[in-house]
Amino acid sequence: MDDSQQLQQVRARIDALDEQIQRLLNERAELARQTAQIKQAAGLGENCFRPEREAEILRRVIARNPGPLSGQEMARLFREIMSACLALETPLMIAYLGPEGTFTEAAALKHFGHSVKTRPLIAIDEIFREVEAGTAHYGVVPVENSTEGAVTHTLDQFLISPLQICGEVELRIHHHLLSRNKALTEVSRLYAHQQTLAQCREWLDAHLAGCERIPVGSNAEAARRAGNESGCAAIASDRAREIYGLQALATNIEDEPGNTTRFLVIGSQAVVPSGNDKTSLLLSGPNRSGLLYDLLRPLADNEISMTRLESRPSRRKLWEYVFFIDVEGHMEDPKVATALATLKDQASFLKLLGSYPRAVI
Amino acid sequence: MDDSQQLQQVRARIDALDEQIQRLLNERAELARQTAQIKQAAGLGENCFRPEREAEILRRVIARNPGPLSGQEMARLFREIMSACLALETPLMIAYLGPEGTFTEAAALKHFGHSVKTRPLIAIDEIFREVEAGTAHYGVVPVENSTEGAVTHTLDQFLISPLQICGEVELRIHHHLLSRNKALTEVSRLYAHQQTLAQCREWLDAHLAGCERIPVGSNAEAARRAGNESGCAAIASDRAREIYGLQALATNIEDEPGNTTRFLVIGSQAVVPSGNDKTSLLLSGPNRSGLLYDLLRPLADNEISMTRLESRPSRRKLWEYVFFIDVEGHMEDPKVATALATLKDQASFLKLLGSYPRAVI
Q1: Measuring CA to CA, which of A341, B12, B112, B339 is 20 to 30 A from A274?
Q2: Cross-referenced SMART domains, in alphabetical order (chains A, B) (predicted)?
Q3: Model ipTM?
């Protein structure tokens, strides 16, 4: 059998597989439709998206995957399959921090797949309002993205909004070296956000060792300066490059390929446990020394890991600071529930922002 | 059986289906790997992407699809499946007209799926150069996109490049009404590209009947003007809104929801017939009256439909115009071959830019 016959045979087998896959995908869509009908008949609402169920399915897909497709690729395909099936019954509307083409849009599509409708909005409070009003099913907002400067608005909104956190998304971020000049050798000053400088240190030491590094408020600000000054460079995104008309002297210069940023999915529905969850809360108490230590004790006593702590000046006069805390586990888990009950007694202010599945892919 | 038990049962069936689907997807990936090995053993090159084969598969998927998933959704899923399988063996690098977040990036991902690597470049000639040099497998460039002004650069490159057209992509485009003002009633002048004004005429007649409509060179230029003048609006993309700091007074105002723009995939490989193809060519002849009529006769004589004709000033002194022509059919189809042979005798200059599958999804 020659190569061409062999190829024919393999292709015929692929074609046969494709028919089977297509049949199963339509069967799956039919079952998703049945799920929706059962729920609607039971008065369980029209929104059939269940964050905990999707997370469970994706985790199982990754766990049982023998290859050759990687677990990540397989999970990505299943995300799209679930997105297409869900769209048959409940075409989800997702509001996100726009414009089109931002990292937040990419995060929204990564989390919900490409079969949703999306609405880019220009301010974080608008996203909260749309979801509160029910004109969008979910919103996607940046929360740990120290180079884009949008985080604090998100945290501040949680102080006043009744919405819950329904999920988190992690996204890889790339940094580029941008300049008006055309060669690295012409660059003597470098602007970037402090954290970005840190994230690219190895590359900078190897390629721009003699160059002065000047931390500025944001990478967008760095790009703006590099657009005004000759002999300068900035570390920023490709988007900033276009807006300020700069050249990319080098791309993807971050030291860790795993440089990620984090987004939150907000909605009006509480999410039941998925088996691997996080819980976010807001905490405050009267301004005195040792407050935070006291507040954290119930977590430690119950062996609950904290994955993140951030403090923000409070908008209420009574306290000076509000703490945003992420812990491992679901608020229905016995240990977490115990810790939260104790915290509630000790803190002047405790607001549960939601329990949600840990990011899967 | 109560609702919750019914739900449990349906979910168990979905889980069982998912396992089968996952197994078949991995089998498919394994076969794709075998295809690559057979080809490499036979010295058929390392690039396993076959535009005609992908188009055939997608057309068959759409033709045999009984639902409930729509043919378009099903084809989209298969595009991603093929993308993931191909990436196992040949991780494709796709150069496109950047920056990230443009319509051209969306077109590249729609055509190649999300398992490819992409490289945004800032000029169309750079994309041709990268593909010619082999550092990118394919390039994606806009070709019929009268509102973004990049078309002519693409056509001019085809005059001098040895690359072939390997595919076409169609993409839906949305228009928004942008302004510095906050209400429609404050707007008395409207800027947009002539063609955009035409595409939004019904909406404008209904909502901005008394407003002066001023055609400008591009929608980006329209947005720039609306950013400088009060009482003005522009029709442009969400991206332009951000760059010029405008408000969206209304979104998706195009009359036809099918408002599409077209992109070409360029590469160094000729594509064999897929069964539903187009052929693009460049034609020129000595400057005399009736030239175009004479040039088009061989097409008419052979009953070949022309889907597009565009004339461009030639860069060579000998002729005044070069014609870019798209026809239905593959250059290996007997009728097309006959017409092309006749054309070659009559024209001073004939360049075949490639035969490629008509856009499927």
Answers
A1: A341
A2: CM_2 (SM00830)
A3: 0.76
